[in-house]
Amino acid sequence: MLFTSPEFLVLFLPATVALYWLVPARARVVFLLLASYVFYMSWNPVYGFLLAGSTAVNYVLARRIPGAANPKVLLACGVIFNLGMLSVFKYAGLFTSGAADLADFLGVASSGGYDGLRILLPLGISFFTFEMISVLVDVYRGSVRIGGFLVFAAYKSFFPKVLSGPITRYSELAPQLERTNKLRFDQFQSGLGLIALGLAKKLALANNLAIVVDAVYANPSSISAAGALTAILAFGFQIYFDFSGYIDIGRGTARLFGLELPRNFNFPYAATSPSDFWRRWNISLSRFLRDYLYIPLGGNRGGTLLTYRNLMITMVLGGLWHGAGWQFALWGGLHGVLLCISHALRGRFESTRVTRTLGWAVTITAVFAIWVFFRAPSLDVAFDVFRGLFNFPGGFSVSSGIFGGIAFKYLLVAFVAALLVQRLALPVAAAVKAAMHSHRSLRHASLAFATIACLLVGFALAPLSAPPFIYFRF
Amino acid sequence: MRTGFPCLAYALAIVAIAIGADRLSAGILYGYNAGFAPAAGSYYHPTVAQKLQQIQNRDPDQMDPLFIGNSLTMLGLDPASFDRAIAQRGGASDSYNLAIPSVGVTFWPEFFDRYWRDPIPRNLLLGLQPRDVNPRGTALTVDFIDRFFVSGGPESGIQHFAEHLLSSAFVLWQRRGTLFIDANRAPIGTGPGSTDITVKGPQGFGITGPPFTFSAAELRRNKRRLTPPEGPPFEFDPAAEQALDRLAAQQAAVGGRLILFTFPIFFDSEPEGAPGVQADFVRAMRSYTAQHENVEFIDTATETRSEFSASDYVDENHFDPAAARRFSAELARRVGPALSGD
Description:
heterodimer, B: 14 helices, 7 strands, about 45% helix
């Protein structure tokens, strides 16, 4: 059941929201838990048992850590359990195919083209694994106290975020689930608006951009410079609209239940440096990597070289978290290099409009180029796309999709304009927000108008195929 | 509850205004805003939505036979004329022409499996030409299947119901395929586009308008110029054969029949139009039906060709409405005895 599917939009969502507010307040958590399992198990009922099993193990550990004689051992058990589960389901294929390749290379044994172990990946496993690790660490640190099992299970399985985040801390959601929350009109109204915005981003923009991107990546060896550049730019926008569209729908849905999920994007393509980018892109993941990996590794406390080492380890592991493939490791590693360079240059230039604009241009160029490794199914394909950038003869066109048939030069202008809009949107967004707060009727009218417009744009411009959200793979 | 009612009212108002804006847009874009079916998905031709809407408003227990096929059937078979001819012979039928432009035979089993929820009519009449069952036709139809079934797989009852509900409320829901055939062409409806075929009457019969019709003299000239003398050998695509098998099994399950029939086209400028290909196709169909008890093949093309001339066609292979009515009566005469009764 995709967030964009009719069964979610016209049946599951309205029914769960209505019933949630109709059931007695003390039963709401149980209702939310049941609804979340129905949602999760609609993909594959077996997944539900895995989710329940993982919840039970983590709950027992989280409850025992505070009073344990040696809490560190329990914490280690918990981290090993969670990472072990992630490794089995997500990385078994990579490890076994890597071992087979190594055996081939060393001449120890012939793999006979063995492609590695293939295990069905439970949806959202990367996200809820990180959430569970964060809970155990927070409990160990004493910053969180675990309440009842139902709240814990509802926190873990909460359907607006279980599949692709945002990675939510226990302290951010559980207290909301524990208290009797009240329906607030403003929250409900903005929730509907976020859902409509997310639908427009995913259906009208991301899914149509996917047509352009897929056309290039389907045949990367013969792509022209125009095609390669178009695909690089288009994917940068596709993944942004896809992932932020999903998050918008998730956050909007949570608001209809009177609950708040953390923000995950803040104009990422307006970033003026790589570290600024990671403060704006997939904020909940960056926060997790910073608090539970980078800082425990030593952060920037051990001098320049150790800081670089910690940045590189964090970003390579962050890359591998996205997928079991060397291209993801390279993607993360390249971001690590960018962060190291950014760290090295920090304080060397005065912050002026010119340096900030230059920083933005360089950061965005690098981020978009590095996305190629993220999108490519293998390193070979990624390098084909980069080679295509130097293949000057020949044009590029896609025959279908709303961007189909549009000449490359216009697409290029549109992409650059979209980037500039995001760069310039920051101050404008702040001004709009301030105006909205001071004029209540203007806020209501404009929100209602935007909700309707986004709904119609999303519905009407959705392409024929409905690919799932990109981050569902992780 | 004090906040509940304003929230509910707000949500309903948003949905109501959005539906109004959607209908208004559809009215402007399509030139007509009534009769939009809750289509299973986006389809390139707006007549499909109208047909699905018409089908919904009919009594499924009464509807029999059902005509399926491509544009040849849609424009060439007038169910009202067919029913009249059956009635004149003492029979009774309440037929419907569900043919959809461009689709090959592989589309139809998917349609019945994934979209159809009514009882299956006992008599399924499938208009065929070589292109519907050869590998080229199968390859072209893959795209049409994808376009029709947006959800991309067998749908559960809940999925079907939800899609139905959403597309009933929002005409534009996932109908981008009908808004833009491709980005270089104008939106369908009031501008130039693919509005060459429109549904005429309540039984799914289609007609085509003047910008797309040729004079008899033009057609004769084109026939001399464009008929391919020979084409590649006819190949009965295994996927098409499998599709026919599925339709035959579907009909057998309700004690009904699958009747295949052909159209006497004026000429066909594509490779399948070569006389040798046409003859091979007829032989292949005869051989196929010989192996299936509840499948019948009526070569109406050969049997009625002498009765139609260039002036009966709007283009190289589609009948004009008057010729379609005559052909429908002829088909009724030939097919009547083969129809399954209760």
